[in-house]
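Handoff note, outgoing to incoming analyst
You'll be picking up this chain. Sequence as last confirmed:
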Amino acid sequence: MDLSQLPELPADLPFPVVLGIDPGTRVVGYGAIVVRPDGPRFLAAGVLRADESLAVPERLGHIRRSFDELLRRLRPRHVVVEHAYTAINAQSALRIGEGRGVILASAACAGAEIHQIQASSAKKALTGDGGATKSRVAQCVASELGLAEAPRPIDATDALALALTVVFRARLSKAL
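Most recent structure output, in case you need it:
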């Protein structure tokens, strides 16, 4: 989705926006929900893409500019970033770490409360199974948000799962 098509939310929006992020250095998935008293509502989802032909620093710069624009438009109170998965090869872990760093720094500069969640924790919160498939998670995201089908691509659905997990945890904390 072209970011210019996203709404520019007012600073005085009465309900918090939670923005989930599935980080990377080529593709960054995002999914935003509004937390209303009657439950979470879908706001936006998509991906930020950096040209693969660019060197890593230039890709990271592109992601930073795009993410800053996303933050400006959606004004999230909470940004949820997928925690790094450690069982991947060292080069992949390094690249994901670089992408996460850009996202974490931008979110902190924007004043958002930052949450870091393992993908398996989000899967468990939505499906009851920390090893659930991405397609199962996508079905649960669509169901929770009252959508006919899950947003695409899967990076966006993963990001929405992270955002929903923070909402579920907050509800549980209040209930306890």
